[in-house]
Structure formats: C-alpha cells, structure tokens
C-alpha cells in the first residue's frame, strides 16, 4: 500500500457538492492499494501513520505523532492513481492498482485501525468522483509505502 500523508490545518472531501468527510488539524491520507496487498499490510500502514512524527510539539518542533496528539484527526481518501505507471508513453497505466474488490476493504481496514487507536477518522467515498480540499500545514508531505513482508 502507498499513502501520501499531508499534515493539514484542515481538510475535507466532497462528493456531488456535499461534504462527506472533514477534519481540523491532523493528517490527510491519500491511499492506494495494489493486487498483493493484505489486511496485514493495511495494519502495518496504520501503525506507521499513527506513529509518524510529523506533528509539531509545544515548542513548534516536528516531534509528535497522532499517537501523541490531543484529539488526533485523520482524513482517509482512496487514491488508485498512486499506482499509476508512467514509464512508457503519455498515458498512465493503472494495471498495478488493485481493483475495488481488493482495495476498498483494505482502505476501510486502514481507517478502522486508525480509529481503533483513538483517532477521529473521516473518509471519502470509495469509487466516487471526489474533490479534496486541504490546507497543507508546513507544508509537510510524506510518501509512505508498506511492501509485503519478505
């Protein structure tokens, strides 16, 4: 699984003009899955996100994680295009992106695992045409990838 993780002052996702998920300060995750991803990989990604120290502490130093934050918030949005292959031609290939039957339960698992750890989690709507609006704080943006265990 891959995730683009952005520290945000606020973020929201809209479908057909309606807000379906919104958070205040926290992390916005754009998440993609590939064919070989599993629930164990979704768990590992949730753990990495939960413990990723990219939030400011009281001194303004990037030294806190969601696990250490007061009222941690995360917006989880499915993003199959993270597995786009642009090595050939001008049109990305999406063959490495998992189909919805694989990806949707894994992204749901990631959101549930973050919520189980104590985060307030908002989500987009899988497969919908979504508009994501955010204020990147910092800006801080990190690319995470959790490959299958060897």
Secondary structure layout plus pairing:
Elements: E1 2-15, E2 18-23, E3 26-32, H1 39-51, E4 55-56, E5 62-64, E6 73-78, H2 100-117, E7 120-123, E8 130-145
Parallel strand pairs: 3-6, 6-7
Antiparallel strand pairs: 1-2, 1-3, 1-8, 4-5
Descriptive overview:
The chain is α/β, with parallel strands linked by helices and 150 residues long. The chain has a single domain (2-145), classed as D-tyrosyl-tRNA(Tyr) deacylase (D-tyrosyl-trna(Tyr) Deacylase, Chain: A, 3-Layer(bba) Sandwich). The protein contains 2 helices and 8 strands, in the order E-E-E-H-E-E-E-H-E-E. Strands 1, 2, 3, 6, 7 and 8 form a 6-stranded mixed beta sheet that branches. Helix 1 (39-51) packs across helix 2.
| Derived structural class | alpha/beta
Give the % helix: 10-25%
- Compute the average pLDDT: 95
CATH topology: D-tyrosyl-trna(Tyr) Deacylase, Chain: A
CATH superfamily: D-tyrosyl-tRNA(Tyr) deacylase
Total strands: the figure is: 8
Beta-strand content estimate: 35-45%
| CATH architecture assignment | 3-Layer(bba) Sandwich
CATH class designation: Alpha Beta
- How many structural domains are formed by the residues? 1
> What's the number of helices?
2
| Backbone CA Rg | 15 Å
Shape: globular
Given as residue ranges, the uncertain stretches (5+ residues, pLDDT < 50) are: none
Please describe the biggest sheet, giving its number of strands, its sense, and whether it closes into a barrel: 6 strands, mixed
* Helix/strand order, N-terminal first: EEEHEEEHEE
How far from one another are the termini? 15 Å
